[in-house]
Structure formats: C-alpha cells, structure tokens
C-alpha cells in the first residue's frame, strides 16, 4: 500500500513557494498578503486559522488575522470585508467557516471581491470552475487533493471517481475538478444516497468528506483503489481519525491518505498557492502553475 503523505508533499511545495516569494522580493515587489477573518471562538476554527497563519509566515506571505466577536452583526462583518476589498495591499481574503447562525454565510461570501476570493467560494468563481469560462479559483481542499494525486502520478483519466459528501467546500468543487475536460466519470453521494456501498465499492478513486468516523469500511472499497480521506474527527479518547476505517482498509487498496497527515496539510498549502496565484494575477504575471488543474 502506498501512503499518500501530505506532510511530506506539502513540505516540498512550501520550499518552492518560499523560493518563489524570495524572487519577488529580489525584484523589489511587496510581499503577498492574506487576510483571515475569524468570527467567534470555535476551538477547531481557531486551530485551523493558526495553522494557516503559521504556514503563511513560513513561506513569507504576510498574514493578517482579524478576530471578530461572535456577536458581530451581518452588516459590520460585510463592512469589514468591504474595507479589505478596497485595501490594495491585500491579495486574498478568507472568512473562516462555519459562521455563527445569525449570519447569512451566502451574503458574506458574496461580499468578497471575486479577485480576492482565495477560497474560491464566491458564486462567480464557482461558476468559472463549473463552466471553464474565465479563470476561477479552485477551493483549497480539492486543489490540495489534486496536487497530492499529481505528486504520486495518480491519473484520474477515464477512472470512476466517487465522492462522498456534497458540500460547497469539498464535495461539489471536487466533482468539478474531476469533471474538467471530461477526465473522469464522477458520482457524488450524500446523505440521501440510498445504497452508499453500491457506489463506493465501484470507485477507482474514492474521496470521502463527511465527518463520520469509520463510515467507510473494508467491504465498501474496491480492491486496488485510491482512497482519499478528508474527514477530521476527534474521538472521545482525544484521538483524531478520518471517515475511513484506515487499519482495515489499508491493505486492500493501492493508495490511501492517513489522518492526520494526509489531506489536511495539502489544504493549508493550497491556500498559500491560491494567495500567490491572486498576487500573480494582480501583478500581471501568468497564473500560478500549482493553481491550475
Ligand atoms: N472551514 C472548513 N474548511 C474551510 C475552508 O477551506 N475555508 C474556509 N474559509 N473555512 C473552512
């Protein structure tokens, strides 16, 4: 079994991004910069935002973290985003999700200027990705998975790809990545799928992004397949596990991502790639190679 080591691959990409930013600085250009908005005190969100900051600093991206109280009004949050939209020194804006329930997430995402939408969640960028018209931004988790597969020379062409989970953050954009240029045959399963196993057991490449420990058991995967586990679940004993029963599945498949250390680090690295991509476009450079799918 081949372990798809996101920690190692992300380290390699981080090194190359660091060198790239050093080159910009030699040319006298300013540092790329990323604004991260965190609303409230959700512990998981705080950890994710901290990881994003640490990684940004490692490569030389200027990261600005804006902590706002969970009681903030929709209007004030949108005002904050508009201020960042108009700030020429900011290349990317990320609003950490989920937002408190009194906030309309869709409205907040739409307030981000599409040219600064580093997550690729704005409907304009999603539409670009879906149609191939214009230059979209690939959301970070699907881009990270794509880069991981590319690193290990796993080609999706002509394969049967099954994605479990249809979220706007992972499942839906992941399906668009595999559908681009009619590469793969894509099935998206979700909570109303009647017979999950009948789909997952046919998958050459299986991507699972649900948030349920051991949802995918040995009998549900195809022999020799590639399994990508996006889940991050904390068990009662404090252990972090994915959505796939890793121990029982691992010797049936060709390749699998561990949790932690698989998709997670690749998502963070993709955020840096997307920040640099937006920075490059702003400076009239060609798109970033790693941001292309
Ligand atoms: N919450 C979980 N994943 C993500 C992500 O990729 N971007 C943002 N903004 N919030 C998230």
The small-molecule ligands in this entry are: guanine
- Structural class comes to alpha/beta
Tell me the fraction of residues in β-strands, as a range: 15-25%
Q: How many separate structural domains?
A: 2
SSE order in H/E notation? Answer: EHEHEHEHHHEHEHEEEEHEH
The rounded Rg comes to 19 Å
What would you say the CATH architecture of the largest domain is? Answer: 3-Layer(aba) Sandwich
CATH topology-level name of the largest domain: Rossmann fold
Biggest β-sheet description: 6 strands, parallel
CATH superfamily placement of the largest domain: NAD(P)-binding Rossmann-like Domain
Shape: globular
Distance between the termini: 26 Å
Give the topology.
Blueprint: E1 2-3, H1 6-26, E2 33-39, H2 43-59, E3 62-68, H3 74-85, E4 92-95, H4 105-111, H5 123-131, H6 140-151, E5 160-164, H7 171-179, E6 185-189, H8 196-200, E7 205-208, E8 226-229, E9 233-234, E10 240-241, H9 246-249, E11 255-256, H10 263-282
Parallel strand pairs: 1-11, 2-3, 2-4, 5-6, 5-7, 7-8, 8-11
Antiparallel strand pairs: 9-10
Helix pairs in contact: 1-10, 2-10, 6-7, 6-10
The structure holds guanine (GUN).
Guanine binds at residues 94-97, 119, 140-141, 169.
Brief summary of the model shown:
This protein has two domains: 28-113, 3-Layer(aba) Sandwich (Rossmann fold); 140-264, 3-Layer(aba) Sandwich (Rossmann fold), CATH 3.40.50. It has ten helices and eleven strands.
Explain the overall architecture.
There is one protein chain. This protein is an alpha/beta fold and 293 residues long. It folds into 2 domains: 28-113, Leucine Dehydrogenase, chain A, domain 1 (Rossmann fold), CATH 3.40.50.10860; 140-264, Rossmann fold (3-Layer(aba) Sandwich), CATH 3.40.50. Helix content is 40%, strand content 15%. The protein is built from 10 helices and 11 strands. It has a 6-stranded parallel β-sheet. A 3-stranded parallel β-sheet has the order 3-2-4, with helices on both faces. A two-stranded antiparallel ribbon has the order 9-10. Strand 2, helix 2 (43-59) and strand 3 form a beta-alpha-beta unit. The protein is globular, with a radius of gyration of 19 Å. The two termini are 26 Å apart. The mean pLDDT is 98. Bound molecules: guanine.
């Amino acid at each position: 079994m081949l372990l798809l080591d996101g920690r190692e691959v992300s380290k390699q990409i981080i090194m190359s991004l660091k060198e790239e930013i050093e080159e910009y600085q030699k040319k006298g250009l300013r540092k790329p910069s990323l604004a991260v908005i965190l609303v409230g005190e959700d512990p998981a969100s705080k950890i994710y935002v901290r990881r994003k900051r640490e990684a940004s600093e490692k490569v030389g991206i200027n990261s600005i973290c804006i902590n706002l109280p969970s009681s903030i009004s929709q209007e004030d949050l949108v005002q904050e985003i508009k201020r960042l939209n108009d700030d020429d020194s900011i290349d990317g804006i990320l609003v950490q999700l989920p937002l408190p329930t009194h906030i309309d997430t869709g409205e907040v995402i739409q307030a981000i200027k599409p040219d600064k939408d580093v997550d690729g969640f704005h409907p304009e960028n999603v539409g670009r990705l879906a149609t191939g018209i214009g230059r979209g931004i690939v959301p970070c988790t699907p881009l990270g998975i794509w880069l991981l597969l590319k690193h290990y020379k796993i080609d999706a062409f002509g394969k049967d790809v099954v994605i479990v989970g249809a979220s706007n953050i992972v499942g839906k954009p992941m399906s668009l990545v595999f559908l681009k240029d009619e590469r793969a045959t894509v099935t998206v399963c979700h909570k109303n799928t009647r017979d999950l196993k009948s789909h997952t057991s046919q998958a050459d490449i299986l991507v699972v992004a649900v948030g349920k420990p051991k949802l995918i058991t040995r009998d549900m995967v195809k022999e020799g397949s590639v399994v990508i586990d996006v889940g991050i679940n904390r068990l009662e004993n404090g252990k972090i596990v994915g959505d796939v029963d890793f121990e029982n599945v691992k010797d049936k498949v060709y390749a699998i991502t561990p949790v932690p250390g698989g998709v997670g680090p690749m998502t963070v690295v993709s955020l840096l790639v997307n920040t640099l991509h937006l920075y490059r476009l702003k400076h009239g450079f060609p798109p970033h190679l790693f941001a292309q799918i």
